[in-house]
Design goal:
alpha+beta, two-stranded antiparallel ribbon, elongated, 2 helices, single chain, 4 strands
Length: 91
Amino acid sequence: MLCITVKEGVDCFFMKKNGCQYNQGSCAQIGEECKGCQKIQDFPSGQYCESFPDPARRWTVGICNMATHVKAEVTTKKHKVNPIKASKRGH
């Protein structure tokens, strides 16, 4: 159904015949950590994420998985070699 609360005209999973069924009846605006993301949409009522109804909750555990403005650090784990097995392979 189309949103009639804060994101007017956007198709929303939480909209039902009797209004928004999301927590407290509407989506939450973006937080400071969302600034610069390409998923932000401007509406007369404020700025909202097009992917999540409450974007601040996505940042509580770490980096938001849909954030387009943040690069995740890739850590490579160096494989440890058992010296005894390595000496046996050398023969």
